[in-house]
Amino acid sequence: MIRWMIVIFLALLLISWFTPLLQRLGLGRLPGDVRFKAFGREWNLPFASTILLSMVATLIGYLI
Question: Is it the case that residue 63 has pLDDT exceeding 90?
Fold first, then answer.
């Protein structure tokens, strides 16, 4: 169980590091990504970007 918690923590850390780079590439602004303001904060739900990145990761995993 602790191993999975470490993996999830590292994945979230990597995602937070690469978020500015991915936003410059246009991810997070695709049709299907939802942005809204609530409670004085901007919220981002990147549905389309998540599907796209999942497909790329699956393709890379398949090729390797």
Answer: yes
Instruction: Give the dihedral sign, CA 27/43/40/36.
Output: positive
Residue 43's SS3 state is strand
Per the structure, the count of domains in the chain is 1
Residue ranges making up the domain that contains 32:
2-63
Place of tokens 């994945």: 11
62: which strand partners? none
pLDDT in tens, 10-19: 888 887 788 8
pTM of the entire predicted model? 0.66
Amino acid letter for position 8: I
